[in-house]
């Protein structure tokens, strides 16, 4: 079972809107302060990557309830240029924009599950999930 | 929106009171350097008590403005980092190494005076 709400990412203000949506859902589901910060930070990283590298895309927040297990999933999708070497972008410090290169490896550590699907020309799809303990 | 920068004796005092968007963060970087130049201040305290998350972009802007201020001969102390912010920063892989920090504004001002040898 899942209930979804989405924010379209086109400009910098949409990044703010996406993390506010995520924080509100996290609060509503009963996540504590630290997990709220983890989820907010992860959304901010994924939304900013969409804005910077794809120009346009979507952040959708799913409320999950799987057999009594409650969780929150962040779905980040875009039809941008895609990523040719996924292993490389998952390394700490790798950046093509002069950033810290902390975004993607950071999101993986902040969340419980992390899946990325991307190939050049096909855009990028990332799903990151946090479970309520 | 601009972040107010106050002058107190030889120091500048900044308290970030709301969630930073990218534009505000970049504007702050510029405003702080101009204010340092204008006032001849030799120390800055940036208080983050009201900030409940920091992502890699904001961390980079903060780290950069600290390095830029150091280049101008000014010491910067960051204060009030909340537990949740400290945890997520480390998990992101951002240690803010070599950055002067203190628990709260009062301790930050003390640390600054020590650093400045006054
Ligand atoms: N949605 C995307 N579409 C295409 N390329 C992407 C996308 N997201 C990330 N990338 C590529 O992966 C690299 C690493 O991303 P990551 O978020 O880890 O670091 P960064 O954005 O460069 O810096 P930081 O996030 O620390 O500010 C980026 O520099 C970019 O080349
Ligand atoms: Mg990034």
Automatic annotation (TrEMBL), chain A:
Pfam family, one: HATPase_c
Transferase listed as a keyword: yes
Entry's Gene Ontology molecular function annotations: protein serine/threonine kinase activity
InterPro entries associated with the record: HATPase_C_sf, HATPase_dom
Alphabetically ordered keywords of this record: Kinase, Serine/threonine-protein kinase, Transferase
Keyword Membrane tagged: no
Chain ranges of the Histidine kinase/HSP90-like ATPase domain: 34-133
SMART domains (UniProt xref): HATPase_c
Name of the protein described by the UniProt record: Serine/threonine protein kinase
UniProtKB/TrEMBL annotation, chain B:
Annotated SUPFAM superfamilies: SpoIIaa-like
Domain STAS: 1-112
InterPro entries in the record: Bact_StressResp_Reg, STAS_dom, STAS_dom_sf
Superkingdom field: Bacteria
Record-linked Gene3D superfamilies: STAS domain
Protein name in UniProt: RsbT antagonist protein RsbS
């Amino acid at each position: 079972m899942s209930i979804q709400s989405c924010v379209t990412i086109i400009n910098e203000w949409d990044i703010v809107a996406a993390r506010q949506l995520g924080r509100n859902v996290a609060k509503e589901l009963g996540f504590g302060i630290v997990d709220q910060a983890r989820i907010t930070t992860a959304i901010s990283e994924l939304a900013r990557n969409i804005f910077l590298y794809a120009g346009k895309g979507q952040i959708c927040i799913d409320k999950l309830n799987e057999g009594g297990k409650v969780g929150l999933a962040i779905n980040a999708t875009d039809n941008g240029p895609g990523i040719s070497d996924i292993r490389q972008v998952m390394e700490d410090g790798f950046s093509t924009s002069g950033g810290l290169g902390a975004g993607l490896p950071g999101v993986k550590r902040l969340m419980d599950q992390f899946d990325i699907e991307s190939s050049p020309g096909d855009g990028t799809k990332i799903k990151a999930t946090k479970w309520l303990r | 929106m601009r972040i107010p920068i106050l002058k107190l004796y030889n120091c500048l005092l900044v308290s970030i009171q709301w969630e930073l968007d990218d534009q505000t963060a970049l504007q702050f970087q510029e405003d702080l350097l101009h204010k340092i130049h204008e006032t001849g201040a030799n120390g800055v305290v940036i208080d983050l008590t009201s900030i409940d998350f920091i992502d890699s972009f904001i961390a980079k802007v903060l780290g950069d403005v600290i390095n830029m201020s150091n280049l101008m001969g000014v010491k910067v102390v960051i204060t009030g980092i909340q537990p949740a912010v400290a945890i997520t920063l480390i998990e992101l892989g951002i240690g803010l190494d070599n950055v002067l920090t203190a628990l709260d504004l009062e301790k930050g001002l003390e640390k600054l005076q020590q650093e400045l040898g006054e």
